[in-house]
Write a structure and sequence with these properties.
Layout: E1 2-4, H1 13-17, E2 25-27, E3 41-45, E4 53-57, H2 66-72, E5 75-77, H3 80-90, E6 97-103, H4 106-113, E7 124-128, E8 133-137, E9 141-145, E10 151-156, H5 166-181, E11 186-194, E12 197-200, E13 210-214, E14 219-222, E15 225-228, E16 234-239, E17 247-249, H6 251-260, H7 272-284, E18 286-291
Parallel strand pairs: 4-6, 6-10, 12-16, 16-18
Antiparallel strand pairs: 1-2, 3-4, 3-5, 7-8, 8-9, 9-10, 11-12, 11-13, 13-14, 14-15, 17-18
Helix pairs in contact: 6-7
């Protein structure tokens, strides 16, 4: 009897996952699934900017139109010849990160649904093993990743992305982006773009939407496209009590606010590089407290 495992492709994957793997799934041999070769499609994050972040999946495994779903969050489908090119580049370029979606087997599904102590603190949890980390959004997906691996894997269900769980699915993908892009000087926060900059908020209020600051390129990646961080760019926090005026935040207040609403999370909290990026942003970009009653998403806030 052979074992199939949900793991990432890496030259050290045997060391990372152990001989038995994380999710041990028995295969009695001769099964139909073991003989089927999946046809994978690649999607690239902000393809026009050539950001080396990809999602890889088999479209046939999902109930919804995953092309449209991923287009909504700035992942563009690659053509057939581009797929082959990316597969070759994965072998050579260390900066490339690929998240491979796989439909959960019964054993993996149990791991997605089972109760553990981490559930007392929310639906998301992350745990650390010797050479890799396990991320779980209860009831939605579970995945493993390692900084040294170019391809990570996410086990999920065929209804991933349907309207009933769309917020959770946006969250899962934005977690992936936050981990994959952080080594390149990119940090994400829950929030939405507006004409003057971005409004940062908590995960629930943003409905899983995030904005990503690229400190090297001095731009912000959003669902509406790429925004340049110009001299008048501001980061806003909404306040239910404030009326008819804005209040400027100090750099320390802004840093604390951003840290609380950062997409990145880990077993030990925010990493040192993430905290340094937040500090840099707070020292170089203005923060404003804005009346929530005046907030109109993606419109002029009439500051």
């Amino acid at each position: 009897m052979q074992d199939k495992t949900l793991n990432f492709k890496d030259s050290n994957s045997d060391k990372a996952c152990g001989k038995e793997g994380i999710f041990k799934i028995p295969d009695h041999g001769g099964g139909m699934d073991s003989k089927i070769e999946k046809e994978y499609t690649y999607f690239q994050y902000h393809k026009d900017l050539n950001i080396p972040i990809f999602i890889k999946l088999s479209l046939a495994e999902f109930e919804i139109d995953m092309v449209s779903f991923l287009n909504e969050i700035c992942f563009a489908q690659l053509a057939g010849n581009e797929n082959k090119k990316i597969e070759d580049q994965v072998k050579d370029k260390s900066k490339i990160k690929v998240l491979r979606f796989s439909e959960a087997t019964p054993a993996v599904a149990q791991n997605i649904h089972f109760f553990n102590e981490g559930d007392l603190y929310g639906l998301e949890s992350i745990s650390y093993k010797k050479n890799y980390k396990i991320y779980r959004y209860k009831g939605i997906a579970i995945g493993i990743f390692s900084v040294g691996a170019k391809e990570w894997e996410l086990g999920c269900f065929s209804n991933f992305g349907v309207s009933a769980n769309q917020l959770a699915c946006f969250t899962v993908i934005n977690r992936f982006l936050s981990w994959a892009m952080s080594p390149s000087g990119v940090v994400g926060f829950w929030g939405v773009p507006v004409d003057e900059g971005v409004v940062v908020m908590n995960q629930q209020d943003s409905k899983g939407e995030a904005v990503f600051f690229d400190l090297y390129k001095n731009v912000v990646y959003t669902l509406d496209g790429v925004k340049k961080v110009g001299p008048n760019f501001v980061i806003m926090r909404l306040d239910r009590v404030l009326r008819s005026r804005n209040i400027k935040m100090s750099s320390s207040e802004l840093a604390s606010f951003l840290a609380v609403n950062c997409c990145y999370f880990d077993t030990d909290g925010l990493s040192l590089p993430i905290r340094q990026m937040i500090r840099t942003i707070s020292l170089n970009i203005s923060g404003l407290v804005h009346p929530k009653e005046n907030f109109k998403p993606r419109t002029d806030l009439s500051l």
